[in-house]
């Protein structure tokens, strides 16, 4: 939105709500392609709970081989409550809010990121 502020005026509710199922499909494929011990970075340019913390909670419950990993550097705020993640898990997420970014240029746009690490194992994964 920071790069294209006029987009907010043209989105319909149907368009906005269509992103969460699409992101789940993309995450499912990404997990299937992730090799044991590999890192999956989930990052969005939105601040909605449904597209961020809820997606992380869904991925962690759907794919028990995934674990959240700390991010370095930790320059954003922690994740938002409301998606069923623990306080420890929320601390491993990063939310970037332009209203709190003074001199930090990296946090100038609204966005979110998490690092998901696949445990080293040989079992196969199936998309839900």
Automatic annotation (TrEMBL):
Q: What InterPro entries does the record tag this protein with? A: MeTrfase_RsmB-F_NOP2_cat (IPR049560), MeTrfase_RsmB-F_NOP2_dom (IPR001678), RCMT (IPR023267), SAM-dependent_MTases_sf (IPR029063)
Q: Which GO terms describe its biological process?
A: RNA methylation
Q: Which GO terms describe its molecular function?
A: RNA binding; RNA methyltransferase activity
Keyword Flavoprotein attached: no
Keywords assigned = Methyltransferase, RNA-binding, S-adenosyl-L-methionine, Transferase
Spell out the SUPFAM superfamilies in the cross-references.
S-adenosyl-L-methionine-dependent methyltransferases
Domain named SAM-dependent MTase RsmB/NOP-type is located at: 1-119
The answer on whether this UniProt entry bears the keyword RNA-binding reads yes
Active site as annotated: 45 (nucleophile)
UniProt lists the family membership as follows: Belongs to the class I-like SAM-binding methyltransferase superfamily. RsmB/NOP family.
Q: What is this protein called?
A: Methyltransferase NSUN6
Identify the species of origin.
Octodon degus (Degu)
Q: Gene encoding this polypeptide?
A: LOC111811995
